[in-house]
C-alpha cells in the first residue's frame, strides 16, 4: 500500500496546483490513497463543502482538518454530509462531523483520523494522547493501515505522539506549522513519522500569507490584515510505503513538487533536474541509508 500525504492546502493557489498536478503525481508514483489536510483551503481560513468536493475531484481520498475547522461557519451545517472529511477526534463532545474516515481500494482499507495538539493552540481540545489511544485501537481492528494527522504547534508534542503511537498506527504525520521538517523516519516498531509535512500553496509568502504585511508587523508591532499570497506554488508532503502483511511502514519519502532550485546541493538524494526524484527515503531496514528496494520502487 502506498500513501501520498499532502500538507496544509492553503487557499486557491494550493487547490490549483493540486488540480493541475495531482493526477500526474499519483500515476507517476503509483499511489493507492491520497490524504490531505484541507483546513486552510478557503482563502487560508477553513474549508467549505464545495471546496472539499473540488479537492476530491482532484484525486484526494480523505481530508483532515485542524484548528481553523469552524472559520467558515457554513461547515457546521455541511460537515455531516461530507463523507470523506474528518474533524479532529479530540474536539469536545457535541461537535458535529466524523472523527475518522475509512477509505477502501482493491480490498485494502486505510483508516484516517486527525488530532489537535494542546500546546500553544487557541482552539479548545481534549487530551490528544488519550484520544490517540482510543482511535488507534478502534481503527486497527477495522483497517489494514492507520494514518494520524497530528495538527500541533510544537515539535516536542508531535515527537512525543510519534513515540507514544509507535507500533500502534502505521504513521504519525504532523501538520499546522506549514514548514516541512527533515526528520522523516521509521520508528523502531514500524511507524512512519514526520514532524511536519509542510504547506501546499504559495511559497512567495510567509506561511501562505502576504510576506510584506507580516514583515511590517514584526517591525512596528501594529495589527494588519494578512491577505493570501500568490506565486511560487508548490506541493509539500510525503509518500509512505506499507508492508501490508507485516502491518508496518517500509519507507517514508518527503515530497516537494516542484523542487526548490537549490535542492540538488542539499543532499545527493534531492535532484532538481527531474520531478521523478522526490527525495531520499527513510527505510525501516536501515534508518541511516536509502533502501534499494524502496528507492527502486519510487524512482
Strand portion, in percent?
25-35%
Q: Could you tell me the mean pLDDT?
A: 90
CATH 2nd-level architecture: 4-Layer Sandwich
Number of structural domains: 1
What is the makeup of the main sheet? 9 strands, mixed
**Which stretches are low in confidence, meaning pLDDT under 50 for 5 or more residues running?**
266-280, 286-299
Helix-strand topology string: EEHEHEHEEEHEHEEEEHEEEH
- The CATH topology assignment is Purple Acid Phosphatase, chain A, domain 2
CATH C-level category: Alpha Beta
CATH superfamily: Metallo-dependent phosphatases
Question: Total number of helical segments?
Answer: 7
Overall 3D form: globular
- C-alpha-based Rg, rounded: 18 Å
Distance between the termini: 16 Å
In short, what is this structure?
The protein has 7 helices and 15 strands. The protein is of the alpha/beta class and 299 residues long. The model is unreliable at 266-280 and 286-299 (pLDDT under 50).
What does this structure look like?
With 299 residues, the protein is an alpha/beta fold. The chain has a single domain, classed as 4-Layer Sandwich (Purple Acid Phosphatase, chain A, domain 2), CATH 3.60.21.10. 25% of the residues lie in helices and 25% in strands. It is built from 7 helices and 15 strands. It has helices at 11-28, 49-58, 75-78, 128-142, 155-165, 211-220, 292-298; strands at 2-6, 8-9, 33-37, 62-64, 85-86, 101-105, 108-116, 145-151, 171-175, 185-186, 192-194, 199-202, 233-243, 248-257, 282-283. Strands 1, 2, 3, 4, 5, 12, 13, 14 and 15 form a 9-stranded mixed β-sheet that branches. A 6-stranded mixed β-sheet has the order 6-7-8-9-11-10, with helices on one face. Helix 4 links the parallel strand 7 and strand 8 (145-151). Helix 1 (11-28) packs parallel to helix 2 (49-58).
